[in-house]
From TrEMBL:
Domain Peptidase S24/S26A/S26B/S26C: 100-220
Matches recorded under CDD domains: S24_LexA-like
Name of protein: Helix-turn-helix transcriptional regulator
Segment forming the signal sequence: none
Keyword Metal-binding: no
Native organism: Endobacterium cereale
Residue ranges of coiled coil: none
One Pfam family cited in the UniProt record for this chain: Peptidase_S24
Length: 224
């Protein structure tokens, strides 16, 4: 199952493959050397801290790894070859069962989600994902168009977890009661309203009354 622990374990495994400590991996990627330290994986209040997609992208570029190779570390046990090993010499476990996939253009239509923002009805495709989650726990939305540039491009897939707690600074998918679906950054949420920052500076920030919001779900991963 995709979780806080498995994401960090995958980063640790990638560091080990390249004979690096987590600090060494962060340094090679041009990040603060303490970014991946175990002490940084939880906040002072005990909340879990997740590595950002930008940080992981920098790590993949710095190590010459592909996203598929990183995702393979989320599986039960990636098969290692003796060090040093080249990319072509490493065998990875088969992908696990798929998760539901829907395009953003379809997501605004009725019948695809229940009241909590979980998949419902027909019309969903399936996308392979290496860590099989509990059925219905996560799903993927495929970006369509350029409204989320420069962070997400056309064809990128956002892994969404409706049941995850959201807090300020999280990237989220929001669906309004009028059927609009958007990916934004959560700026502020109160009992009465929600403020969202647009990923694309060409698009305005948005503010909604909570009565206008059908559901909000956190983006926990982006497959680019």
């Amino acid at each position: 199952m995709l979780s806080h622990e498995t994401i960090w374990s995958a980063l640790d495994a990638l560091a080990e493959r390249h004979q690096l400590t987590p600090s060494g991996l962060a340094r090679r990627a041009g990040l603060d050397p303490t970014s991946f330290n175990k002490s940084k994986r939880q906040g002072p209040d005990g909340r879990m801290r997740w590595p950002s997609t930008e940080s992981i992208a920098k790590v993949l570029e710095a190590t010459g790894s592909s996203i598929d190779q990183f995702l393979a570390f989320l599986g039960p046990e990636p098969v290692h070859t003796p060090q040093p090993a080249t990319t072509s010499e490493v065998t990875y476990p088969p992908r696990a069962s798929g998760i539901p996939l829907l395009g953003f253009a379809q997501a605004g239509a009725g019948g695809f989600f229940d009241d909590g923002g979980f998949p419902a009805g027909q019309g969903w495709d399936v996308v392979d994902f290496p860590a099989a989650p509990t059925s219905g726990a996560v799903y993927a939305l495929e970006v369509q168009g350029d409204s989320m540039l420069p962070l997400y491009r056309d064809g990128d897939r956002l892994i969404v977890e409706p049941g995850a707690q959201v807090r300020r600074g999280d990237r989220v998918v929001v669906k309004t009661r009028e059927g609009e679906v958007m990916a934004k950054v959560l700026l502020r949420q109160s009992a009465k309203s929600i403020e969202l920052n647009s990923l694309n500076p060409a698009h305005p920030n948005r503010t909604f009354e909570m009565t206008e919001v059908e559901w909000i779900a956190r983006i926990i991963w982006a497959s680019q």
